[in-house]
Amino acid sequence: MQWLLLLSVLVIATCGIIYELIAGTLASYLLGDSVTQFSTIIGTYLFSMGIGSWLAKYIKKNLVQNFIVIEIIIGLIGGCSSLFLFFIFNQVEQFRVLLYFTVSITGILVGAEIPLVMRMLQGKIEFSELISRVFSFDYIGALLASVIFPIWLVPQLGLEKTSLFFGILNILVALVAAYKLAPRKSSAPLKFAGFAALFILVILFVFSHKITRNIEKEHYGERIIISQTSPYQRIILTESGGHLRLFLNGNLQFSTKDEYRYHEALVHPAVQMAGKINNALILGGGDGMALRELLKYPSISQILLVDLDAAMTKLFTHNPRLKSLNSGSFKNPRATVKNEDAFRFLRENKSVYDLIIVDFPDPSNFSIGKLYSNAFYSELKKHLSDSGTAVIQCTSPWAAPLSFWCIENTLRSVNLNTLPYHTLVPSFGDWGFIIASKQNKLQLNRPLPNHLKYLDSSIFVTMQHFPKDIGPRPTEVNNLQNQILVAYFEEEWKHVQ
Amino acid sequence: METRSINRKQFIVLISSFFGAGILWAFFKRFFTPKAKSPSVVRTQPDAKTGHLVRQNIDAHKSNKPSVPIAIIGGGISGMVAAWWLKKNHFNEFVLYELESNTGGNSSAHKNESGMYPLGAHYLPIPNTNQPELLEFLEEINCITGWQNKLPIYNEYQLCLHPKEALYIRGVWQGELIPTYGLNENEIKQNEKFNAKMQAFSVLKGKDGKEAFTIPMAHCSTDPEILELDKISMKNWMLQQGLNAPHLLWYVDYCCSDDFGANSSLVSAWAGIHYFTSRKGRGANSNAEQVLTWPQGNGFLAEALRSKISAHIQPNMLGYGVEKKENNWNISLFDKNKNSHFLQNANAVILAVPSFVRQHLYKNNASFPSNYHPWLVDTIQLKAEFFEEQKPAWDNVLYGSPSLGYIFNGHQETALPVQNRNITFFHAFSSQNPAETRKYLENSSNQHLLSGVLRDLEKMHLNITQQIISHHLHIWGHGMVSPGINSLWNPKRIESQKAPLRMAFAHTDISGISIFEEGFYQGIQAANKILKEL
Ligand SMILES: Cc1cc2nc3c(=O)[nH]c(=O)nc-3n(C[C@H](O)[C@H](O)[C@H](O)COP(=O)(O)OP(=O)(O)OC[C@H]3O[C@@H](n4cnc5c(N)ncnc54)[C@H](O)[C@@H]3O)c2cc1C
Q1: What is the pLDDT of residues B475-500, one digit of tens each?
Q2: Across all residues in chain B, what is the average pLDDT?
Q3: Measuring CA to CA, which residue among B148, B154, B139, B396 is closest to residue B281?
């Protein structure tokens, strides 16, 4: 009995420290500022242990049974804590509150354990022996936990499995106690509870990777209100100061503060340079904002939006907050959405459009680089009517001038005429666009509409001016065989960040 | 109180409970980390059993087939090109017999749910511009989409996309196959020296005014001084030149194995140098370093050829004897499906089979001993995650390995999403005694063969094994002819490749270098010979 209890002290101590370390690690993953997170969590934990020890005196009878019950509860709460915290992280705004609540509960329960064990051992060992043994085991457990946690557990198992594993250890202690220490007659329900808890934890342990796969673990220094992982990208929406920002794979796509600047500049000049527009095509642009701008023209009768990621278009069709950003454009009867790869769409379809808006992410990898290649633009050209225009978002000519002019040279290499322009979008910086067309002369056929928030015809003239430091320069043509644009882009943005 | 003894007991219990926890841990890790179900394995090889009938004296009853003007035996690239060229010349009365159920030979392909993949040949370098028929063919099948300044414009979707190749060396992936990462000064100098020498050879002309190294082989200079290079091994030539850096010797071994199925000790210096210097192809949008490739490899080219001559093809037919009958040829055939024998009378015959088969089919010619090294080709179906995480190039090679690494068969796709796809791993077994190696491969279990493949792949991509869905192992007992020392330009070999009147030999073996362009050339030559003599 004696060694059994001492051993349980060791296990409990190890488990307790582990839960605390997990909470601290998680909090610094999710909230940042690890010094603050760790010190507040350690503080809360130790304080809660104090409360637990104090509360232990109110447990007068049935020491063993209570010990077992507490052990099972610690196993469950501590074991599930990391899963639970990961899970609520997206859902709940009071993440912090729940975090400290979980830490306190585990602290209190662990705190109550040691006095209980000591009282159970009381009389069996001399008092001084008792104190020194219990505390030695306690501290050995603490050492053990803090050494194996960073070196072995987290890299090998990950946080979720580590906490579940120690939850299981707690439950095993409870079960051993139920068999060895508990009085016969009262032990049946305890054993049952122990096995039930064990079962739950083992199941969670087996499936934990499935549960956490879709949970976003990074933080953006802002409150995250949506975090989703689609087969193609991580979609994160954050909020601060009443503005929303969308990140795809960690790259900022828009901020509601100034997205109108970007989307007005992207859409309206191309519209006014095209001949008559009956049908339009948007490639990318799954946030529906370019669509929103286009729908302002009642004469455009059909708009097809092709975006790879159904998760994006779904979010921006149904989520109340997000659909208000694009004025519910996806529900407009003139708009159709197709979730397909844009390159495949162009290669497999024949329809011709009077306006094509190309709003892809920046060419930061080879998959996206293909969508800026001469092969892609040749396909694009086949779909463009003779008087039609295409407009392409082209990254920042200030941060990445070679990349910008490479796109321009690539468009020209397939015999499209081009009109490059740029403007300031404060969240992004100086941002570039290129209008491409089979028309010989690219100019505004009609003035830009009056109701725009930012753009007017006179500003558009200045947007076409490129100062020397970001002016045209010779580059290679981006093709599928060299993917030179990705190389330019990487090189140039490396120096910016 | 017996505190001491209790303490010792406690101590033992403590230690053993640590062990207990460790065992528990191992148990959890083992049983609860999701385990991939073990991948399925399919193993195939060319129909050697039927093929070996050519070695026997068969005395069976043969029914007569109606006589034809031309019969082609063998439906590899060479045989099919001969057929295509006959048709191009408005000659339609011919039949092509192929042993396997499908034409293609070494350029065959297969498919599974994740797409098509090659069983053998998998790329065509940008061809030299001195083979107009080849360019004509490529234009017919839309590999060449147009012309600019008299140079072909190659189909952008068939030119190998970026990144084309990657070498895993000392823990990093570098973007070229010739090792450059982590070299010391001397080693860098050797690379430079090697490249300079190859550059010089590629522009070298013989006393006869012909290029020293080009494709087709038949256009190469026969200047004896240059042909001296055929009399030593590539390896010895390298050492003679002071090119002895291990990384460079490995690289040259790799290249020789890639093209000839044999390493640099086994092939002649002439052949080795030919690999580096004969490709001078140009295109409006490409250069000699580029290659054309498809998910199914050269199966694409084989299928394009097949579709042009499909009405003439009779598959599952083994030709096992050709005899002169008055002014015609009598061809003995075995129909695998019907399990019966036939006699085909033809005015002319094109033997588009490898020399080691041909010598049994038509015994009158002197034979020349050649080595055919066996190949192991393993197509591995992998989960999408692998490609997302690892982003392989098209051709991925492991430095220091005798294998040829693998190609990624989904590489030419331009569209997302990334899905389960195939890679195809190649290993040519260079050895002094190919027959023995053949036997070894034949007798090896799948598991044994796969463990070799996985050893290499695991070095390149840790834990790739967990991502594997299936394997298709294909063993080529006689992969391709290797241009050994004193073989390519050996007068005896050249003599043995000469066919009598109204018979023609079409096979890459005639050239002695087994590549698509040579097969194409030999096919055209054979068809022309017959058209002239008929
Ligand atoms: C593993 C491997 C990889 C390769 N990779 C490349 C590459 O990437 N690029 C490249 O250019 N080349 C490659 N090659 C070389 C390849 O051999 C040639 O490109 C080309 O396919 C050879 O064609 P062929 O017609 O000369 O010969 P084969 O392909 O040998 O054709 C001979 C045909 O005759 C049939 N046949 C044999 N005996 C009989 C008989 N008795 N009766 C009837 N039919 C018979 C065979 O079944 C076969 O179809 C590779 C070869 C191998 C083995």
Answers
A1: 999 999 999 999 999 999 999 999 99
A2: 93
A3: B154
Upstream peptide bond of B315 is cis (omega within 30 degrees of 0):
no
Which of B107, B379, B407, B513 most suits a substitution to test ligand 1, by most atoms within 8 Å of the C-beta? B107
- What is the chain A residue with the closest CA to B8? A3
What digits encode the pLDDT tens for the residues A283-315? 999 999 999 999 999 999 999 999 999 999 999
The interface predicted TM-score (ipTM) is 0.85
How far apart, in whole angstroms, are the C-alpha atoms of residue B49 and residue B442?
A: 13
CATH number of A468's domain? 3.40.50.150
Domains and CATH numbers, chain B: 48-101+315-370+482-533 (3.50.50.60), 124-159+165-289 (1.10.405.10)
A126 shares its domain with A260: no
Domain co-membership, A136 together with A276: no
Chain A residue set in contact with B, beta carbons under 8 Å? 2-3, 6-7, 10, 125-126, 129, 156-157, 165, 168-169, 202, 205-206, 209, 231-232, 308, 341, 343-344, 347, 366-367, 370, 374-376, 479-483
Which run of H or E residues covers position A238?
A: strand A234-240
How many Å from the N-terminal Cα to the C-terminal Cα in chain A? 62
**C-alpha separations of B251 from A331, B258, B271, B392, B479 in Å:** 60, 10, 15, 20, 21
Cross-chain CB nearest to A209 (options B17, B34, B414): B34
d(Cα B516, Cα B497) in Å, to the nearest integer? 18
Catalytic status, residue A362: no
The three-state secondary structure class of B518 is helix
> Has residue A239 been placed in a domain?
no
Boundary-marking domain end, from A172, A205, A220: A220
Q: In the prediction, which pLDDT does A39 show?
A: 86
Q: Is residue A439 part of a domain?
A: yes
Has residue A243 been placed in a domain?
no
Do A214 and A116 fall into the same domain? yes
Q: What pTM does this model have?
A: 0.79
Using a CB-CB cut-off of 8 Å, the residues of chain B touching A157 are 29
Domain range enclosing A313: 254-493
Q: How confident is the model over B237-288, as pLDDT tens digits?
A: 999 999 999 999 999 999 999 999 999 999 999 999 999 999 999 999 999 9
A5-37 confidence digits (pLDDT tens): 888 888 888 888 888 888 887 776 666 556 777
Counted domains in chain A:
2
